[in-house]
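During the second year of the project, the team shifted from modelling isolated chains to modelling whole assemblies. The rationale, set out in the original proposal, was that interfaces cannot be judged from single-chain predictions alone. As a representative example for this report, we include one of the complexes processed in the last quarter. Its constituent sequences, exactly as entered into the pipeline, are reproduced here:
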Amino acid sequence: DTGVSQDPRHKITKRGQNVTFRCDPISEHNRLYWYRQTLGQGPEFLTYFQNEAQLEKSRLLSDRFSAERPKGSFSTLEIQRTEQGDSAMYLCASSSSARGREAFFGQGTRLTVV
Amino acid sequence: EDQVTQSPEALRLQEGESSSLNCSYTVSGLRGLFWYRQDPGKGPEFLFTLYSAGEEKEKERLKATLTKKESFLHITAPKPEDSATYLCAVQPLRIQGAQKLVFGQGTRLTINP
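Output from the structure prediction step:
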């Protein structure tokens, strides 16, 4: 069990550019979540997958954000036409519907939009 | 609307000085309450899950308790390595939005040697 893996760990991009982040969940976990965290705040829910189906999306998730989980394994989060307000830590978590309800988080991707 | 409030925002203790962190929550129904620890620049690390009022969980110097309106994280004889931000989160009990966690803003704990 290698834990939840996120790539890249850090990303600096210019305003208006598109960025994509990847998350590899714990191998036996069928549930995957994306959260966003800004400095001094707790994580905020963005979206949730069970296997390959995207079952929930937060109202925070504008049309510029899209997430996928092809084949129910890894997931990607894409942000189009980035804005300075998108600067944050993007966290991925996974859990198993067959076990406890706890979600395990990755180390996050720190996005800075300049 | 589901809401979680943690207090204090920051707490500074001397090594060995026991204290408690508070997590107050408002949710229509509670599926579970979670405590996480987060070190700077890293993702949250799972500590405990509590499901019903009266439940308690312990791990080393930490003990979490739950009532119908709040949860406490008690830290006994803390060490400098316990310094971190402690996050509380609730999972609402309803079909729509059943899987997301709603987090508080965290308590930043510093233990001085």
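Chain B touches chain A at residues 4, 31-32, 34, 36, 41-46, 49, 87, 89, 91, 96-97, 99-106 (CB under 8 Å). The longest strand of chain B covers residues 30-38.
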